[in-house]
Amino acid sequence: MRMRKKKHGAERIAACSELLIENIEVLKEGFGEVFSTDRPVHMEIGCGKGNFACGMAEKYPDVNFVAVEKVADVCCVALEKARARSEERPDDNLRFIIGDAKNLAENVKPHSLDCIYLNFSDPWPKAGHAKRRLTYRSFLEIYKNLLNEDGILKLKTDNVGLFDFSLEEFEAFGMKIIWHTRDLHSEPQNADNVMTEYEKNFSDKGQSICSAWVKFED
Asked: How do beta strands 147-157 and 210-216 pair?
């Protein structure tokens, strides 16, 4: 996600430090030091401006949510949004990580997540950039290590090319596709859907959203 550099970004992020996991290595022992209440943990990788993460944390107070964003200036917006909406989360169940998804496997306790969300990830459309896509098999290996036995990976994208690529990668990796659609907003599953900023923009323009829920097989 491209964004103009935020003025006083570091100071603004520091002002939201109570929501930020600054030392990701504490997660090697699990999420006990991050959340005061032991609940299922869901993670969004590539949270953008935070609309989905905030909405999910508010809608599901019985789940702890961790939102990961690689670009600090983007996460700054998400952190400020979450802080402004903190009264909507009386259970204090949302935290953020500024970092690369590639580093999660070595810093997060294995099999400690119940769900991973990939929402409108960069499609990296050039063939030579396939390894950068968050549904490429090397990333799937990371997710497999992070999710517990019953954990689910949930994908949403407006990009048909990325969606087709992802389905092929899931199959090649031996994953089980529980459910998928090329028009999420016309499906019963949409009743519990929380939209991202991108999703709302695409939906307002009449664009269909692709989605898939998958599990790793032994």
From this structure: antiparallel
In this structure, the chain runs to a length of 218
Residue 8, pLDDT score: 76
The one catalytic residue in 100, 122, 183, 192 is 122
Query: Buried b vs exposed e over 138-164: b needs ≥16 C-beta within 10 Å?
Result: ebbebbbbbbeeebbbbbbbbbeebbe
How many structural domains comprise the chain?
1
The reply to whether 174 falls in a domain is yes
pLDDT of residue 5: 67
What mean pLDDT is predicted for residues 141-158? 97
Handedness of CA 139, 39, 55, 92 (dihedral sign): negative
Range of the domain at 136: 36-216
In a domain, 3, yes or no: no
pLDDT score for 218: 74
Query: Does residue 21 sit within a domain?
Result: no
Share of the chain above pLDDT 70, in %: 97
pTM over 0.85: yes
Provide the Cα torsion 138, 140, 142, 144; round to 10°. Answer: -140
Q: What is the pLDDT of residue 4?
A: 59
Annotated catalytic residue 100: no
